Fold this protein.
Amino acid sequence: MGIKSFLTLAAVSISVACVSSFNSGEPVSANMAEPSATPAKTKTIREITFIEGEWDGVASTVTDAEWKKLLTAKEYYILREEGTEQPFTSELNKNKKAGTYYCAACGLALFKSEHKFDSGTGWPSFYQPAYKKNVVDKEDRSLGEIRTENECARCGSHLGHVFDDGPEPTGLRYCINGVALRFKASS
Ligand SMILES: [Zn+2]
């Protein structure tokens, strides 16, 4: 427990420090390849460390102020304010490549391509998490109904909701915001 806790804090501190130092001194997006040619198409993708396997560590302690610095406005709205992206806007919705979907905030492995299906809803949909412990269910009483919200087990970020109208073998439909996911193809 003590060691895990320390390691988690260290990892978080390092990632925050990397982003801070990366941004300092280059106020306009340091990783834009062609800053003046196609500014509308370029966007800063934060580097995150992908974490494989079932998560049994402690939750991260990144503060709200730190998340605001780390995430884009859209990511912050969805991941930290439980927002929902417009349907059919994520390129991951139709993604059929083999690979793993990680938390866009902290990099924890959340879903796998073999559990993905086309639900027709416009959001990436899965019938089970990559690892049971990595996706946490939580009661959501917003919108005047009781739904089951999903959060990342490591950083507590909002991912989407799970419903019981999914396909076999689980009958579950994890309806996940593409903004909350980072996809990495298996090589
Ligand atoms: Zn996370």
The longest strand covers residues 135-140. The beta strands are 99-103, 109-112, 116-117, 125-126, 135-140, 147-152, 158-163, 173-176, 181-185. Residues 1-187 form a domain with the Metal Binding Protein, Guanine Nucleotide Exchange Factor; Chain A fold (CATH 2.170.150.20). Residues 1-38 have pLDDT under 50 and may be disordered.
